[in-house]
Amino acid sequence: MFGEAVDRLGGELVFATDRCHQLDDPWRDGAVPIRFYDEKAAVRAIVESADNRPIDGVVAVGDRPAVIGALAARALALPFHSPDSARVAANKLMTRVRLKAAGLTELWFRSVPLDVDSAGLAGAVSYPCVIKPLALAASRGVMRINTPEDLEVGVARLVQLLRAPDVDELRDPANETILIEEYVAGSEVAVEGLVTHGKLRVLAMFEKPDRLEGPYFEESIYVTPPRLSEFEQQRVIRHINFAVKALGLTHGPVHAECRLGDRGVVVLEVGARPIGGLCSKVLRFEGPSGVLSLEELLMRHALSQSVADCRLVAGAAAVMMMPVPAAGVFKGLSGIDAAHAVPLVEDVVVTAKTDQRFVLWPEGSSYPGFIFARGQKPSEVISAVRESYAALTFKIDRDIPITAETGE
């Protein structure tokens, strides 16, 4: 989508992606091969590539890439969030510490190492609470804990996840620590924003109509505009604006998550990046030159072009991140034509591949696909994506539990 956007702008997109430098352009995308865990070498490779292809702007997709992007932007004297702010935003513990220092939240929280004695920890926290990794995305590893027994089981499960080979390959020191924090009851909203020289502009606000109450927090539907009063929306914006300033985010996209309940507005996190995955397809903007995708808007902003006249297209839009129906091996899908035929549904995108393993949350982090709908009212598009998903039938080879038998 970024490639399509830069083509419309008449420019060239230079990728910097996490891959082995010894491979000879395996995806034929001309990418600069970097390793996210080696920041100095990554920035050096990006800067050296600019000798042949001058770079005029930086956009980062993802929390860890945002840190690399910020370091590269500083080395190239390009506008972007500072490396410090991107690093803080990418780490849930550092975010909590920074927000607390700024007086934004009164949530209790504490961090513990992976080798913590969870039995001894049980009496040192209050319930319900939430345990989570510091740097994994898509709510992976996030669990609600209601009792001391839950805590012992949950911590053991999270430790196992953080020691899994795919997480270990990230070489991220943040994955050596667990965050425990107060559980906040209430509904959840997300905000897509753009910061220009320190000033936040809200591009869109999403309601999450499915209550995320745990024990795990797999997300599903985002709908905009939210069914909130103007007063509630402005209250959310004020808190997000305060959090952006507290974290030091000054130039580039931000994606924020909040809870609304008896505690008022509680900012959960603010990423120095745009919304993840294909979810951005739900957003369209009207500008002087026509309709823009979020990607084109971000590219224009990164190139220091004005996007002040771009506004979210009127009406309601929803995206469903298809829930994983069961653990096992994906073998196929039926009902796609019926899912497409549901009124108001614009697109049904299946990203799962045959023989891909489906993993449920909290260990999972990958959705089978996305459903998009557009209409006049939020309630209409919410119903449309639900009906579309209900038309799909997944064929999955279920995991078979294996038990050990002993005998004499």
State which percent range the strand residues make up: 25-35%
What fraction, in percent, of the residue positions are helical?
Answer: 25-40%
The span between the termini is 62 Å
Gyration radius from CA atoms, angstroms: 22 Å
Can you count the helices?
12
Largest sheet: 4 strands, antiparallel
Kindly provide the name of the CATH class of the domain at 315-401: Alpha Beta
Q: Which whole number gives the mean pLDDT?
A: 94
Superfamily (CATH H level) name of the domain at 315-401: ATP-grasp fold, B domain
**Uncertain parts:** none
- Biggest β-sheet: strands ordered side by side in the sheet: 3-6-4-5
Shape: globular
CATH topology of the domain at 315-401: D-amino Acid Aminotransferase, Chain A, domain 1
Number of strands: 20
Structural class, from secondary structure content? alpha+beta
Name the CATH architecture of the domain at 315-401: 2-Layer Sandwich
Question: What descriptive keywords fit this protein?
Answer:
single chain; 408 residues; Rossmann fold; Dna Ligase, domain 1; D-amino Acid Aminotransferase, Chain A, domain 1; 27% strand
